[in-house]
Amino acid sequence: MTLVTLVEMARVTAVPLSYLLTRGQQVKVVAQLLRQAMQEDLLLPVVKSEGGEDFEGATVIEPLKGYYDVPIATLDFSSLYPSIMIAHNLCYTTLLPPGGPQKHGSVLL
Question: Which domain of life is it from (predicted)?
Fold first, then answer.
């Protein structure tokens, strides 16, 4: 990244320039959430880390399995989502209706 790009990213995301070089992507998202929460007079919970933690891993929330017909927001900072989708053939186009595939003429749906 060029210096101009870093400065503008720091300005837009409201994080110190040094955070862009030493921290991951999550700090930028959290900063945006905090900024929006302040504008709407909302409070966000803060989870304090326990002492002795040398490395902060990813936050993984166990998903609720099922088919959703409404938009779902995901944050995948390491681009693992596409890899998992490809590896397990998970896609709305591979969803089978209850009772299995239906034949319509010569096309199997």
Answer: Eukaryota
